[in-house]
Design brief:
The protein has 8 helices and 13 strands. By secondary structure, it is of the alpha+beta class. The strands form 3 sheets. A 6-stranded mixed β-sheet has the order 6-7-8-9-12-13. A 5-stranded mixed β-sheet has the order 1-2-3-4-5.
Amino acid sequence: MKYQVVPVTPYRTNCILLWCTTTLQAAVIDPGGNHNDIVKAAEANGVTVTQVWLTHGHIDHAGEARVLADRLKVAVIGPHRDDQFLLDDLEQEARTYGFPVHPKVVPDRYLNDGDQLSVGQLRFEVLHTPGHTPGHVVFHQPGAGLVFVGDVIFASSVGRTDFEGGNQAQLLTSITDKLWPLGNETEFVPGHGANSTIGRERRLNPYVADTVLG
């Protein structure tokens, strides 16, 4: 498995192009904008995008999901159904925050905790991780020791919970009950900023370190 981060939107969202090195089939995670750059990255790596995945429904992660999917004639998969209210509001969010205005997104498939996704020969586990948004999900690839976490956790920080549908208690539970069991060596790719590992955040994250949560 390989992946490339394609920064998109003025918020520098980490859109992910990931692919199976055997089949060269690829998925795109969180195409919030700049869909031309995403297509160029796929072409430069010689891969074929077969699906678009969403971790959650905020505009900087989902804003151009339908545009990209329609251009490539592929499905939009995820997030959990509980984020549809955010996807319904994407046009208004675009006007509010100065993003290009595109129609709302209705996924071709919603995701639930325990679902599995495939890209070529790669298998991913889906974990429902509410808190930043009610329908947030993450994508875990056990063989690579990687998890793509959207805006649940960052290096030395955690996702905001002051947006509509956010819940701090849920977020902390998602982190400790869903992410910590993946193991200290597991590396995560967040929706913004640099990668980190579960172990590092358990030691050093000022919001969710073991010494903070007790």
